[in-house]
Write a structure and sequence with these properties.
Number of helices: 8
Number of domains: 2
Largest sheet: 9 strands, mixed
Low-confidence stretches: 1-25
Strand content: 25-35%
Radius of gyration: 19 Å
Order of helices and strands: EEEEEEEEEEEHHEEHEEEEHEEEHHHEH
Oligomer: single chain
Structural class: alpha+beta
Helix content: 10-25%
Distance between the termini: 60 Å
Number of strands: 21
CATH architecture of the largest domain: 3-Layer(aba) Sandwich
CATH class of the largest domain: Alpha Beta
Shape: globular
Amino acid sequence: MAGREISTWSDERTAGRLPALVASTLDNLPPHRHRVYGLTVATWIPFPELEPAPADAPVDAVFRLGEVPTELASPQFSGACFQTAPDSLLMWVTEGAHYLVRAGREIIVQPKPGAPLDAVRVLLLCWPMGALLLQRRLLPLHASVIAAPRGAVAFLGASRAGKSTLAAHFRKAGFRVLSDDIAVVHFAPDGRPWIAPGYPQFKLWPEVAEKLGEDARRMPNLWPSQPKRSLSFRSEFHSTSLPIARLYVLEPVATDEVQLSRLAPFESIRCLAEHTYRAQFVPGLGLQSSHFQSIARLADAVPLTRVRRPAQGFQPEKLTSVLAADFGMP
């Protein structure tokens, strides 16, 4: 008997959207449907941080419970907590679960005994999700993104560079937010790069939440032992893809003033490689060629601007004003 639908890649394209899909079948799809990064996913439990999708929507990827191997058969690369091979990533997290990511189609989850379900869920949306996006030949960047009148404005940077802080301050200034922490780039038929919406949740350190006027003590932890707080912004979420208007890379340095400088093309490529989300997975997944093509296309289409901001005495309100003026807002 025919199973329920799961999508596979097609050669068709639609401007400004992710690649069109055609349906094949897969029995026993998990019951819950969500949208994230332009994909419809079927999940074994509800993911309250994600946007819902229609129950009959064609499915692009599956998150399900299952038995995960202790190692891959022929790993190309082994890290401290992961192994990679073409089309496969195996990952284990102390507080959460073992995850197996395969072919851009599924994430199999084997929770550890007593692991908090919140941790299992939140962690899946980090490293394993990054691997699934890479396997689908998408370009996930370590960035937070706002929606501006001319398109998506993305803030790239290393951990604690101020990506989420800056996006949260733009939200307070009246901007909608497209994504926090991961920005998924795809290309329209005309070559123009777009960013797909993520999900409406900031993950903030308590001190950052307090500076935003939130009471961190009343905000939920991402999971019991994780100090970061969850801040939902569903009413300020921009839920459709946007063409990329500007790309900024944040660099905290020893300076008193904000400094903006345009990067040369070769510097842009190097910067995009450095700030690809989970770039360490790329070689073992066998994606060096497609990944380089994606970052080169993006660097050619959208210039990158380096933002050197004070490492000490960071004033997000001031930086918000400087950048809004730069990308064309009054």
